[in-house]
Amino acid sequence: MKNHTRTTLGLLLTSLTLGAPLAASAQKKPAAKATNAEAAIRESDIKRDLFALAGDKYRGREGGTLDELKASAWLAEQIRGTGMLPAGEDGTYFQWFNLQRTRLTKASKVSIGSHALSVNHDGLVYQPTNAVVNAPLVYVGTGTPEELAKVDIKGKAVAFLFSGQPTDGISFRRYLTATLRDKPAELVKAGAVAVVVVSDTRAEAVFEHWGHTYERGRFGLPGDPNLLVVNQAPTVWLPTSAAGWVQQAGQQFVADLRVETFAYPSVNIVAKMPGTDAELKKQYVLFSTHQDHDGVRAPVAGDSIYNGADDNATGCAALLAIMRAFKQQPSRRSALFVYHGAEERGLLGSRYYSAHPTVPQSSIVAVLNAEMMGRNVADSAALLGSTAPHLNSSDLVKTALAANQAGPKFKLDTEWDKATHPEGWYFRSDHLPYARLGIPAVMYTSLLHPDYHTPRDEPSRIDYSKLTRMTQWMYLTGWAVANRTAAPAREPGFKLER
């Protein structure tokens, strides 16, 4: 499939590998102060690039779609314009990989009594499964042991109302996910043949947001265990509006569910600026981001395109600006730039590249990841990977903190990097696969905001002055790492909490 992908999609992208620039003669000169090249990071360039990438033309750049590939082709053309050399496969800027998608067929059906449900719209099926069920439905309240003791659930479909509170500092979303996974498993073990979960008011907002995801199915790299289709009792999640009618006695639960699976192409975009030092040029400082977002989904206030301006066109524009700075003044080590595809599908591009890098894995001395860098208070930001247990290189973090003091002087929020933070933000971007390999890695971010993963994440809402300063901070860190003689030291005994 990989070779077939290159053949069929190569016509779209081949022109981007022609005329790739030769290594600049300036590489032979000794490295100068970063301030000589920092002026190449211009707010006007960043704003222009971001508006182009996050406009409606690319329809939200959903991973595994032609929209993502078209956006990737545009990015590669901009990268070539900066003077960076191709560092993908076969002398190109590209590294192809496949996504595996598992979803319920459109012919799948679920009904409860007289209510015929539109699958993954009126009712969300928690995990794609092949199942045929025709059984009486019993309602057990919130499913406490006392309530369950009053009802014979063997051979029946069991409905319960979601309830409870998260503990141990986990987020509500993680608590909800655990409940949808664990509670039905307990009921099936006790004899239920299907489970129906009814939202309370807290779960309703999540139900509405996650419907887009359930409709699309599950994604992963080929061979991912979470894509295995296990023929099991189905779990159907209903909105709060179902709470009244689902309790009616004498209803029959009927389901006919069928699973289908597909492979889709996605792509990483990889470029480099070779270093000037005869030995250190064999090592790489990797600047990371992702180019995909959520694509076209159900409209919100009349807008169906999830443009992903902050998430993550900000990172894409930032890397282009950093490339221009490294072209103007190369460093002793080589600079490697990776745009990861299909991040929103589960960090798939970074998982693939970290396992199959186009340079020796051992030659990557640090990863600086750009993730949502253009919103919230103008003078605040965060550096994830700076607090234990996420800290895997005190050396790299000290360099980043020094660069912040030398440059933008952001007030740094450390709460979001703690293991106790309910959002688990550290685990949701492309530095993570590298950190799991022990490679020193940090993430630059201005954190979440109300427009996150909505059609309101538009280019007009970005703080371009802040984004420019975030870009400069990231560049100054990378420049320092790329010019020092010793690579950043790795933290002894580094181990993530999950």
From TrEMBL:
The keyword Signal applies. InterPro entries: M28_fam, PA_dom_sf, Peptidase_M28. Keywords: Signal. It comes from the Bacteria. It holds the Pfam family Peptidase_M28. Residues 1-26 form the signal peptide. Residues 268-474 form the Peptidase M28 domain. This is Peptidase M28 domain-containing protein. The lineage of its organism: Bacteria, Pseudomonadati, Bacteroidota, Cytophagia, Cytophagales.
